[in-house]
Amino acid sequence: MPQGVGVRYNSNGVRILKLEQVKEGLKVSGIAVGMPSGSLDSFMNEQGISTADAPVAFGLGPGDFITASIRHEEGMDDSEMREQLQWEIERKLISDPSEYNFDSAMVNDIGFMFAGRKKIIAEMIQSDIEFFTDVEPIALYNGCESAGEMSGEKVMLVSVEAEGVSSVVVEGGVMTALESFPIKVEEIASVLPSLDPEGMAKIDVSIVERLADYVLESVKRLTSLGENKDNPTPEKLVLAGGGVYAGELADIIGKKSGMATTLSDPFSSLINDVNEIQPELSGRSAAFTTCFGLALRAMEV
Fold first, then answer.
1. Structural domains counted in the chain
2. What's 209's domain CATH number?
3. pTM above 0.85, yes or no
4. Per-residue pLDDT for 29 more than 80?
5. Which H or E run contains 210?
6. Which end of the chain is more exposed for a tag (fewer CB within 10 A), N or C?
7. Are 68 and 88 a contacting pair, CB within 8 Å?
8. What is the pLDDT of residues 155-201, one digit of tens each?
């Protein structure tokens, strides 16, 4: 049966989710959070997550990848679009293109290409793990889509982490806008990545307000709630990422934006109960939405 591992990693912690496709549907066969003391593959082995039978997709967050975009011109086919995007993004690279993994996406009539340095991940691995990289906005979209959190509406998806925010606007199941930008909230940089329970309980309300403001800035840029009234008006806002468990973040965003706001719940689409594997993580589903999307992508390899 197809299997895949999704890993969201930064220098302050890691979240890992292993999925397996069985006849009845998707099941979690491994889940972990923490701060590896050694190599990443050693940490996964310690957590009972084997990569011998499953490709691994590593998520690159805000600041860890480069983006290029161009508007689709009449008469331009997919290969021409990709060649132009490749040329655009290579102008931004700081080293040889062979040192990067590339991926692309079409959003409305704009083509995007993403480039992430292989070295970011390769330095953390000591074995011959079969891996590739993906970027957070696309993994966020894939995770929410599989969890059935779009349902043909105009929806805005936002992942909130200590190091950055990634947003995607979806209309009729199709991405129409996206962005990903780094932020600096040092007070929780060592708390959110590994969902440190003690640290999460001590997050000050002022920090939660700052996180909410970053999200609201993105909402204003990408929707009609900002200066551009021609932008889409989402019917709901779906929040994901470790930041959603910081205080009353969702309530604050909902009140300030006036939008119906919910938390992503990828675990709801599983056929098994995460509570039976890791009880302490079963209530943190939204923190694994990106990992969920990454694992799904790995299963397709």
1. 1
2. 3.30.420.40
3. yes
4. yes
5. helix 205-222
6. N
7. yes
8. 999 999 999 999 999 988 888 888 999 998 999 999 999 999 999 99
- Residue 250 inside a domain? The answer is yes
Domain range enclosing 57: 3-61+122-299
Q: How far apart are CA 106 and CA 225, in angstroms?
A: 24
In sequence order, the β-bridge partners of residue 113 are 68, 104
Query: Rounded distance, CA 301 to CA 298, Å?
Result: 5
Q: What is the DSSP string of 136-184?
A: HHHHHHHHHHHTT--TTSEEEEEEEETTEEEEEEEETTEEEEEEEEE--
DSSP collapsed to 3 states, 111-131: EEEEEEEHHHHHCCCCCCCCE
Whether residue 89 lies inside any domain: the answer is: no
Asked if 252 contacts 206 with a C-beta cutoff of 8 angstroms, the reply is no
Pairing of strands 56-60, 131-135: parallel
CB proximity list for 41: less than 8 A, separation 6 or greater: 51, 125, 126, 127, 129
Amino acid identity at 39:
S
Mean pLDDT, rounded, for 39-64 = 87
End-to-end CA distance of the chain: 13
Six token digits for residue 159: 């992942």
| Integer angstrom CA distances of residue 149 from 65, 170, 203, 236, 263 | 26, 11, 28, 10, 10
pLDDT band at 301 (very low <50, low <70, confident <90, very high): low
**DSSP class per residue in 32-51:** EEE--SS-HHHHHHHTT---
In the sheet that holds 3-10, the strands lie side by side as 25-34, 13-22, 3-10, 56-60, 131-135
261, part of any domain = yes
Most confident of 18-22, 46-50, 99-103, 260-264: 260-264
In a domain, 267, yes or no: yes
